[in-house]
């Protein structure tokens, strides 16, 4: 088994585990108690009909579902804007304690790596709340507002934070449900980069 296949399998396992534990969605944000979910917080309930369409199937090795959202300046931000870079799509909310703990490491990762971008997709919060949080944290990575929750539903997000990894060609590599450490981020990105260089 090649190293690329190993990476895909590891990320796929993370995606499957996240989807399995995310099938029961709470109606209000609150911390979870189980050991398997110790680094995630449940997302508010999504509408049942907000699933990816057949042409936008959420699957490892397939194109990541497309989306266009507004940033904090009111400009359109699309996943396709970052083609040619490794993209970490981080779904988060300001009320999520684990998201808050992860943010400084995401900022560092984004600043220190020219070949990748952290795209922080805030879910179901207003621009003013998100803008205040980002300014107070002095974060510089791009932020997109998923105020309706449609994009997070398309990506089957049921807990925060959840991070998806997309390669330079726009293919979905997998996801990690829950908070990552800086070391975990570096290891995953390093493995992705090593495969690209082969």
UniProtKB/TrEMBL annotation:
What sequence ranges are listed for the domain Thioredoxin? 58-194
Concerning CDD domains, the annotation shows:
TlpA_like_family
InterPro entries for the chain: AhpC/TSA, Thioredoxin-like_sf, Thioredoxin_CS, Thioredoxin_domain, Thioredoxin_ResA/DsbE_sf
Superkingdom classification of source: Bacteria
Q: Which UniProt keywords apply?
A: Membrane, Transmembrane, Transmembrane helix
| Region: Disordered, residue numbers | 28-58
| Compositional bias (Basic and acidic residues) | 39-54
Residues passing through the membrane, by range: 6-23
- Signal peptide as annotated in the record: none
Q: Does the keyword Lipid metabolism apply?
A: no
Q: Which PROSITE patterns match?
A: THIOREDOXIN_1 (PS00194), THIOREDOXIN_2 (PS51352)
Q: Does the keyword GTP-binding apply?
A: no
GO MF term list: antioxidant activity; oxidoreductase activity
Which PANTHER family does the entry link to?
THIOL:DISULFIDE INTERCHANGE PROTEIN DSBE, THIOREDOXIN-LIKE PROTEIN HI_1115
The protein's name: Alkyl hydroperoxide reductase
Q: What organism, scientifically named, is this protein from?
A: Anaeromicrobium sediminis
């Amino acid at each position: 088994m090649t190293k690329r296949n190993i990476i895909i399998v590891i990320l796929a396992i993370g995606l499957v585990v996240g989807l399995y534990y995310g099938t029961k969605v709470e109606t209000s944000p609150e911390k979870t108690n189980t050991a398997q979910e110790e680094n995630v917080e449940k997302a508010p309930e999504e509408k049942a009909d907000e699933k990816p369409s057949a042409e936008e199937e959420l699957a490892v090795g397939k194109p990541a579902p497309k989306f266009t959202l507004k940033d904090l300046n009111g400009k359109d931000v699309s996943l396709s804007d970052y083609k040619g870079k490794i993209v970490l799509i981080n779904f988060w909310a300001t009320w999520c304690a684990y998201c808050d703990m992860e943010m400084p490491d995401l900022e560092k990762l984004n600043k220190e790596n020219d070949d990748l971008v952290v795209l922080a997709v805030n879910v179901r919060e207003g621009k003013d709340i998100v803008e205040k949080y980002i300014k107070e944290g002095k974060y510089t990575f791009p932020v997109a507002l998923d105020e309706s929750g449609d994009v997070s539903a398309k990506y089957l997000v049921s807990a925060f934070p959840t991070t998806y990894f997309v390669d330079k060609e726009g293919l979905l590599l997998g996801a990690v449900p829950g908070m990552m450490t800086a070391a975990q981020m570096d290891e995953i990105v390093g493995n992705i980069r090593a495969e690209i260089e082969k």
